[in-house]
Design brief:
With 343 residues, this protein is of the alpha/beta class. It is built from eleven helices and 16 strands. The structure holds zinc ion (2 copies).
C-alpha cells in the first residue's frame, strides 16, 4: 500500500513509499482509510518540533471503513464506517488511565507519530478506540471528528461555554473555525474571531459563514481595544487561544474578563512563551490547556456532527496523497481551512 512515512529524525525526511499492508491482532480491526486530515501537528513533526518515533507512517485524523476484524472483535463488522481515538498504547493501568484520562497516559503513542498512522491506504486500530460514523455524516466530515473532539473536550467540557457567553477566538485556522461552530451551537451570544491579514482571503469568510459575529483583523485593528469596546470594557467570558503565538497568548489574558476562562488549544512553536502573569492574577482568570480529546468528547462531537452542526465549510482542500508536498505547504502557510487527503 502507499504510505507517507517520516523516515528519520531531523527536518523533513518525509517520503511517499510502498509499505506492507498492516497485520492486525485479535483485538484490532483493519480500516481502509477514506479521508485523512493534515494537522499543524504534522507540520511540527516535519519540522522536528514534536515527538515521534521514525520510521513512522504519519496522520492521526481519519475516517474509514472496516475491511478486516480480529478474532476477538465481536461488536464491529466488516463494512462499518468508523473513526478512532488516537490513544493507542495507553497502558490502562496508570493513575491517568484509571481516572479515565488515557489521552495523556505516559505510554500512549498515537497513530501518526508513535505508531503507524492514517496517511496510508490501510490503518490498524484497537476495537475499543473506534466510534461509528452516524449514517448521514459523510466520510469527509467524519475525518474532522478528531479535531472536533479536541475542541469539544477543551472548550465545551473543560472551559464550559455558557448560554449568553461572549467568546473571543484567537486564530481562525481549523481549530478556531471549529471552536466558532461549537461555541455558537452551545449558546454563545456573540463570537469574535481574531486573525492576521493573511486570513482575509479564506479563513475570515469561513468564520463569517459559520456564524462569527465579529471579525478582527490584527493588521488593521488592535484586538485588545476592539474586544474592550465590544464588551463594554468588561472583557470576554471565554477566550479560546488556538494560535500558540506569543501575541495570541498575550491577547488571551488581555481580552478575558475578570473571573473569565481561557481555553488553550494552540501548540506553540517555542517552549517558552511570555505570559502577562500579574494581569492574569488581577483578573483571577482560569487557564486550561489541552491538545487531546476525552472519551466523552468523541460521543458529543459525533452527536453534534450528526445534523446539529455543519463542518463542510471548514474543508477547503481535498488532495491525493501523491500531492502531499503541496498539502503540507498549504497547511504550513496557515491561510486555508482543513486540508484532507482522499484515498
Ligand atoms: Zn490533529
Ligand atoms: Zn496509562
Amino acid at each position: 500500500m502507499k504510505a507517507l512515512v517520516k523516515t528519520a529524525k531531523g527536518r523533513d525526511f518525509i517520503e511517499l513509499k510502498e509499505a506492507p499492508r498492516p497485520n492486525i491482532n485479535a483485538k484490532e480491526v483493519l480500516i481502509a482509510v477514506k479521508f485523512a486530515g493534515v494537522c499543524t501537528t504534522d507540520i511540527h513533526i516535519q519540522h522536528d518540533r514534536f515527538p515521534y518515533w521514525p520510521p513512522v507512517i504519519m496522520g492521526h485524523e481519519f475516517s474509514g471503513e472496516i475491511v478486516e476484524i480480529g478474532e476477538e472483535v465481536k461488536d464491529w463488522k466488516i463494512g462499518e464506517r468508523v473513526v478512532g481515538e488516537p490513544h493507542t498504547l495507553a497502558c490502562g493501568e496508570c493513575f491517568l488511565c484509571r481516572t479515565g484520562n488515557i489521552q495523556i497516559c505516559e505510554h500512549k503513542r498515537s497513530p501518526g507519530w508513535g505508531i503507524d498512522g492514517a496517511f496510508a491506504e490501510f490503518l490498524r486500530m484497537p476495537k475499543h478506540l473506534l466510534h461509528k460514523i452516524p449514517e448521514n455524516v459523510t466520510f469527509e466530515e467524519a475525518a474532522l471528528a478528531e479535531p472536533t473532539a479536541v475542541v469539544v473536550y477543551e472548550v465545551l467540557e473543560r472551559s464550559r461555554v455558557e448560554p449568553g457567553d461572549f467568546v473571543v477566538i484567537i486564530g481562525p485556522g481549523p481549530l478556531g473555525l471549529l471552536s466558532t461552530i461549537l461555541c455558537k451551537a452551545s449558546g454563545a451570544s456573540r463570537v469574535a474571531v481574531i486573525g492576521t491579514g493573511s486570513a482575509e482571503e479564506i479563513r475570515f469568510s469561513i468564520a463569517r459563514q459559520v456564524g462569527a459575529d465579529h471579525i478582527i483583523n490584527t493588521s488593521q485593528e488592535d484586538p485588545i481595544d476592539v474586544i474592550a469596546r465590544l464588551s463594554g470594557g468588561r472583557g470576554a467570558d471565554l477566550v479560546v487561544e488556538t494560535s500558540g503565538s506569543p501575541s495570541g497568548i498575550n491577547c488571551s489574558v488581555e481580552t478575558v474578563r475578570k473571573l473569565g476562562r481561557i481555553a488553550s488549544i494552540g501548540f506553540a512553536a517555542q517552549d517558552q512563551v511570555p505570559l502577562p502573569w500579574n494581569k492574569a492574577m488581577y483578573k483571577n482568570c482560569q487557564i486550561t490547556f489541552t491538545m487531546s480529546s476525552s472519551y466523552s468528547s468523541w460521543g458529543r462531537a459525533l452527536a453534534l456532527i450528526d445534523g446539529r452542526i455543519d463542518l463542510k465549510p471548514v474543508i477547503t482542500d481535498i488532495l491525493s496523497i501523491e500531492e502531499w508536498e503541496e498539502a503540507f505547504e498549504r497547511v504550513a502557510a496557515r491561510k486555508r481551512g482543513k486540508v484532507l487527503f482522499r484515498f
